Request: fold
Amino acid sequence: MAVYKIFPLQDATMYSRYPLMNTGIDAILEISNLNPSTVGTPIVARPIIQFDQSQISSVIDTFNTGSTAISASLKSFISNASGVVMKSDIYAYPLSGSWNNGSGEYLDNPSTTNGVGWEFRSNSGSNPWNIDNFSTNVTASFLTASKGGGTWYTASTDTRLNLEYSQSFNLRTAKDINMDVTDIVKTWYSSSKSIPGTYTEIENNGFLLKWSDEIEFDSNLAIQPNMQFYSTDTNTIYPPQLEVKWRDFIYQTGSLEIINTPDLYLAIDNNQGVFYSESINQFRVNCRPEFPIRTFQTASIYTTNFALPTASYYAIKDLDTNEYIIDFDDEFTQISCDATGSYFTMYMNGLEPERYYEILIQTRVDGNTIVKDDQYYFKVVNG
Reply:
């Protein structure tokens, strides 16, 4: 199984109240519909996030996954939330126009206007967002007094594809965004490769995130959701990410015996302890009964390796925060096996460098679910 994380090429937030303001290097991305008493109309904020298409295509091409075999999720991590007291939906769409990141932060004084804002896609005064005469399946949403806010695709001429994704939030739900965007990524890939017979007219200009039409620009004081997420310029370990997953599970044990007791001992081999951030490593999972049955044989019973069952999975935790960076997944973190033993492949690019991580192994044996959390540590460093 394979999980590959891609971090943003650029991101920014567009604010209807400050149509020329650029926030390209701000540490926060914001989605809001606020109704301050000093302003007559609601203040809407929409973040946009773009991931490098060459990196997306390289992942799909290099690992021979084929665009139809991948799963892709947009992830963004909450910094602060308020006003989400009822069911509120955030939507993600593919942007229909290119834009420039800029170098501004929220409420710079004087305001920075050298990149994307609510009114313009590039510098202030050049390349305005389209506000009429839209191409097929392209739309926008704004008030007359604050025209702009981006343009996006709502559908594809290929009816098999879904270009509108959403996630619901309320007072008690977790506030991180974890949204399936597979069809959008497939469309970008097809477009970048000009693949015959596929939908190729939507280029990768990134994602636009917004509240539902029922929420945006609503002046009801009871509807003021505001969610702030860490941007790619955060000084934390929580930048947005595009998580690409594919199934590369292989299970060929040869003459290797499969472990059949829940009392098992595991050891992680091929763990050199420190890995460069661009490296790929195949961890070998050695397994044997914790209390082997004594037999008459020339080799030590403690050196005989067993295969883990097919229902075996790995997870990765940040050692400092104790958070799952890659959680157990029945489809995408399943542990493979060959005639030598069990193994899984780890792509270090998706882990923040200069941090320590822990490997956890979950397996199901004889009706028992066992999780091994036995201090299998490693560190990722820049390079």
